[in-house]
């Protein structure tokens, strides 16, 4: 049985993996994701594309019907409203990152990677904007 510390380390490890994968996957599926300023996220495509998105982020380890679940994340899709609802700690991280990418209009993987680079010049406007957004998440 996993201890609390093991679970925390696992979530942190998954957050790092999510950062890396999202830098590749978001730009493939961004036309299907709509985020509002109030933090709502919509999936504008079909279930097949949603399964492909979740599989690209997390592999085939979860179950996906109109919800995706694995040990660390759960995402439900409500088709009539096209709403994605995120659960668990990693789900909230994913939601916040998708919202930041969409609202800040990050247009390509290089810009995303630059904003997530710890060596980035914190005085640059884009990095400062993203850093402030990330502080709200934490």
Spatial ordering of strands, largest sheet = 1-2-6-5-4-3
- Proportion of beta-strand residues: 15-25%
Order of helices and strands: HEEHEEEEHHH
Low-confidence stretches: 125-138
Rounded to an integer in angstroms, the radius of gyration calculated over CA atoms is: 15 Å
Oligomer: single chain
Decide which structural class fits the backbone.
alpha+beta
Number of domains: 1
Number of strands: 6
Share of helix, binned: 40-55%
Categorize the overall geometry: globular
Mean pLDDT: 76
Distance linking N and C termini: 28 Å
Question: Which sheet architecture does the biggest sheet show?
Answer: 6 strands, antiparallel
Helix run count: 5
Structure description:
By secondary structure, this protein is an alpha+beta fold. The protein has one domain (4-101). Helices cover 54% and strands 15% of the residues. The protein has 5 helices and 6 strands, in the order αββαββββααα. The chain has helices spanning 4-29, 47-58, 88-103, 109-116, 125-137; strands at 33-35, 41-43, 63-64, 67-69, 74-78, 83-87. It has a 6-stranded antiparallel beta sheet with strand order 1-2-6-5-4-3. β5 and β6 (83-87) form a beta hairpin. α1 (4-29) runs parallel beside α3. The protein is globular. Residues 125-138 have low confidence and may be disordered.
């Amino acid at each position: 049985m996993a201890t609390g510390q093991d679970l925390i380390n696992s979530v942190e490890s998954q957050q790092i993996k999510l950062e890396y994968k999202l830098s590749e996957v978001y730009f493939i599926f961004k036309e299907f994701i709509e985020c509002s300023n109030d933090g709502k996220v919509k999936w504008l495509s079909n279930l097949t594309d949603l399964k492909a998105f979740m599989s690209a982020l997390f592999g085939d380890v979860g179950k996906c019907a109109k919800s995706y679940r694995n040990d660390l994340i759960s995402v439900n899709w409500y088709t009539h409203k096209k709403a994605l609802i995120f659960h668990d700690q990693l789900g909230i991280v994913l939601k916040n990152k998708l919202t930041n990418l969409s609202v800040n209009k990050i247009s390509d993987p290089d810009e995303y990677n630059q904003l997530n680079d710890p060596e980035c010049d914190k005085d640059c406007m884009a990095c400062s904007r993203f850093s402030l957004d990330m502080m709200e998440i934490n």
